[in-house]
Each structure stands twice: as C-alpha cells, then as structure tokens.
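Before the break, one more example. Copy the sequence into your notebook; we will annotate it together after we see the structure.
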Amino acid sequence: MKLFPPVVLGVLCCLAGSTGIAAANPAAAKISYIITLRPQADQDGCARAYTVKRQHSFRHALNGFTADLDAATVERLRRDPQVLAVEPDAEVKLCDQTIPTGILRMNLTNFPMTRLTGTDRRIGVGVALLDTGIQTNHPDLNVVQWVDFTGDGNGGNDWNGHGTHVAGIIGALDNGYGVVGVAPGVRLWAVQTVGPVHHNWSTFIAGCDYIITNADKIQVVNASLEGSSNPINAPYTAIHTAVSNVVAQGIVFVAAAGNDEYPIEGPDGIYGTDDDILPAALPEVMAVSAMNPTNDVFWGPSNYSFVPKPCPVISPGAGIDLAAPGANILSTYINSGYAMLSGTSMSSPQAAGLVALYIAANGRAHNLPNTFAIRQAIINYSQPQSQWQPNGNPYNATHNPTGDLDKNPEPLATPSEGWVPNPDILGAGITNGAFTLQFAAVPGYSYAVQFAPTLPRSNQWSQLTTLTGTGSVTTVSVTDPATNSSRYYRLSRTSE
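Here is what the structure looks like once it is written out:
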C-alpha cells in the first residue's frame, strides 16, 4: 500500500516552534541568534574565532549568520567592532488567513455554510483519515482522536506531512490565520495506517475495524492511498469486505482515484478483478479525480474511468464520482506549518469536505443506501464538466494533452443550495400550556420566527425570535407563551 506521491512545492511558514529540554545549567543554555556583520567583515573568520556552528549563512541579504549561542559568547560578539548586531531569532506567522485556490474554485467563499469570516465556528461532523496520521497539535486543525495501527511508534502523530496536508484541505479552521478547509473545524480522527516502516493492507483493514467501532461518531472517511506498484497483489476480498462493512454503518467512504494515469477498473475494464485500483474502484467508494483549479484542466497523472461501477450511483464520469482541485493546493503541514502539494491525494479530501458539509445540512447516513443517496445528491448538484470546461475538454494527444482521458465528463465538486433543506415547520402544538413549533436549523443560516394576529395584507408581522444554526443540522423548538389569542406564524431563513 502506498500514498499517492504528492509534488512538494514548498513549506511556507511555521506558526509554532518546537519545544526542548532546558539545560541543567541556565548560564550555559543556548538560544538561537542572528549575527549581523559589517559588509566587509570576514564571516568565516568570525565563526572560527568564536567557535560557533552556523545554522544559516547569509551572503547577499546581509553579511551574517545564525547560530545557537550561550550568554558569554553573545556578550563577546557584541563587543567585537566587526559585529553590527547580535539579536535573538524569533518566530514568524502568516499575517492573514489564506483562502486556497481549491476553495475559491469550488465557490465555497459564497456558500453560507462555510461563511469564511475568520470566526472560528466549526462544522459538527466527524471525519476519519486513513493516512500517515495528523499533527495532533497543529494550531489550525481540530484533531479529536488519534490512533496508530502501524506499530512504528508514532502514536497517530504525523511522521510524513501527507496526512496533515489532507486534514487541512478537509477542515482547517476558519480562525483568521493560516488556511481554511472545505468544512472548517470538522472533528478530525487520525487513523494512522501508513507508517515509515509498516504500510500494508493489514494496517488499512485494522483502521477500518477501528472506524466501525466508532461509527456513531464518524460520518466520513477519506483514503488518499492505493496498493503499491502492481495492484495484482492486493487482497481484494479482504479490502472489499472491510470497506463495505464501514459503509454499511452509514459512513461515506471517499478515496483518491490515484496518480498512475490509469483506469481505476484496470485495463480489462471489469470491476472486481485483480487489476483494479483499490480502494477507489470499489462500488461503495466515492472516487475522485484531480483538476487544476487555476486553469480548469485535468491534472495530468490523475487516474480516470471508462466503465461505470456496478452500484446505484450514476455519474457522468463513469466510475469516477467527481473531479476536484488537486494541483498546487496549499494546506496545513507538519511542524505547525503549511505546504503546497499536488495529486489526487489533494482532490479526494476536497470531496470529503463537501460530503461533511452535506451531512451537516441534512444529517448523517445510517446504512448503505443512505450513503449512495448522499453521493448521488452531490454528483447531481455539482458543476457539470460542460460548464467548468466549456469545450468538453476531450483528450487529444496532439491538440489537447491536458484533456479528459476517458471522455466521461465527471462534474466538478461544488456545494449547492439545492441540497440545503428548506426552512419548513416540522411540527407544532400546545406543550405545557404554550404553543411550540419545531424546524431544522442548518449551520450558516439565520432563522426568524414571526407571528401575526391575523393574516396581514401587508408586512405587519412581529418578531417572536431569531436564531442561527451551528455545528450541524438540529431540530430546534421555539415556544410562544402567549396562547390566549389566535395567532399565525411564519418561518424565514437568510444566510449569515
């Protein structure tokens, strides 16, 4: 089993430094300093003279270096006429929250549920990642549980960066700094099944086993991985059984299509055989291909599909449910940092985040047919390929090598007001001598309950109460204690 290898374009910054063990003798403790020399000073000679080990050597922006120094060496350097300054190093952070290109392309900035105001209001859905783990204390993530099935000693904490990057795409906090995810603040479960030493299908299945035992708290799974090298070695029956049992619990399973430029059903064109790309080819799985959000072309190495899956979900993309942004995606990274990566590993969590939003608006699935219904609704309301690629983008090796290799036009994952439930009154009656009505409140929307003694000909309604949905869809009750007269009620909804 392997992760889809992403393309690392660079770590942008760190928001928090690492901690260490203080030296026993405070006078001998060393901290990092920036030493700025005069322009013509001999930097190499200075380092030798004070017996310091340079961490960074600067030759152009300034003449100087960084080094860990004790207090005595700092004072000696400050008295040296060649030295302009000896200053403690310090942390830096992003000055503002960056909205990644995938969020922009999926039109999430205009979707009421995501809001993106820089105010930390979290989507109340549990999402598990079968991955390298997640940095459990990353300041831009809401990691609620972590577990390690590799036995490599990392305890669920990300050793690689891949899982933390995927986690940020799904649910980085809308907190005014760093980045923001598709479903900001979702409850992230780090199910570490890919380790530096052990990364087998057995660890993947152990992760599935764990997810089933916590199915009451997990609604979505993301798997940005596939079998290593030749898929003929995959234990198909075991993998299919494990995944189908996860989905039978009402958990939507989302997987990356893969980065092999290969059909997920294999060259034989038949699902359920030993050349399938797993888990993406399984009927129970939402498979996601990758596109570039800045120019609306397919990401070249993305896998594709010629043949529909044998399941009730129908997609124009055949066995691929959706395309999603996967090229040059900025997200969270290990060491409390941020990085830009590319791959279907990045597109799959975009779709997983969208599934989390759908569930936050409509409630979780409870069985296999419910999960198929969620997948179908998201496919139906996403942006058709004819709109996000007006020319249809058929692949042609000479004229359009960035086109859709299978010519099956999967839609682009996008949210829709069409799958947000209408503000309907679900029930009403007298409770404990007062009139009570119930309705479903969806995160990101404000609800106003108004009353009038008669049906007015003009806008003569009076306000009874207003409230705002948070977390996930909730049935709320509103009580009007004034029951000594006849009244009419109405419910209206606006986005925040």
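The first strand starts at residue 2 and ends at 3. The radius of gyration is 27 Å. Try to locate both features in your own notes.
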